[in-house]
Amino acid sequence: MAGALTADGSTLVMWKQLTEKKGKRMELSLYDMKKIRKIIGGKFEKTLSFGGKLKKELKKACSGSIQKHYYQDDISKRLLHPYTSFQSLDIEKNGGGWKIYITGGCEGANNPLTITRMDVRRKGKSIHYNAFREFVSLPALLGQNNSVNPKFELEGCHVVGNNLDFGVVAKNESEVKQYIAYVPLNSIQRPLIEK
User: Fold this and answer.
1) CA count, 13 A, side-chain hemisphere, 115
2) 106 in Cβ contact with 83 (< 8 Å)
3) 173-193 tens-digit pLDDT
4) What is the per-residue pLDDT for 195?
5) How many CB atoms lie within 10 A of CB 121?
6) Is the full-model pTM beyond 0.70?
7) What is the model's pLDDT at position 138?
8) Cα dihedral sign, 141-3-12-65
9) Taking Cα atoms as reference points, which of 112, 91, 88 lies closest to residue 100?
10) pLDDT for the residue numbered 81
């Protein structure tokens, strides 16, 4: 499970993975934080369960969700679990909707480094979206950790101005180094066509 909050604190996005008999189901849900604050009445505990006694009330704070069932093996088309590697997400408001960013990838496990952008909007009671994905290469980091071909893994991401900042872990046989990299938000524009 992972979550992120818009900069103004108005919308919470949550990602979760559920294992079912047939395979896996991923879910991305958007919540109205004003409604959540009203439900919990300003009483913050160490954890807040979206199940149990508050489940019905918190469900009313849900602005919408996107569910994907991954029962097939075409991992290149996976929106919410790209190439079987989910690393982090962030969200920003975009007019009357949101832009959600998902980083994925761990080269050591042969999962390419990717950044997915979802342009999400409400239409009536449902959620509509367009999806875009770009592959990430990090030529400036090659040779930085005593290796010609280090294996990279993307970690947390955050929208900062017009860029998406993210962490990079570079691994080789003898050491691990960490870096911060970024891509311009407008460079994530290759349409992702789902099956």
Assistant:
1) 29
2) no
3) 778 889 999 999 999 999 987
4) 54
5) 15
6) yes
7) 82
8) positive
9) 91
10) 85
- CA dist 29 and 16 (Å) reads 9
**Whether 79 contacts 101, CB under 8 Å:** no
Are the C-beta atoms of residues 16 and 5 closer than 8 Å to each other? no
pLDDT at res. 108: 73
84/169 Cα distance (integer angstroms):
18
Closest among 137, 85, 128, 81 to 106, alpha carbons compared: 85
Beta strand residue intervals within the chain, DSSP E: 2-5, 11-19, 24-32, 62-70, 88-94, 97-106, 111-123, 126-135, 151-160, 163-171, 176-184
Both structure tokens of 98: 């949101």
DSSP letter assigned to residue 19: E
Tokens of 121: 């909007």
Q: With residue 38 as reference, give the H or E element that holds it.
A: helix 33-40
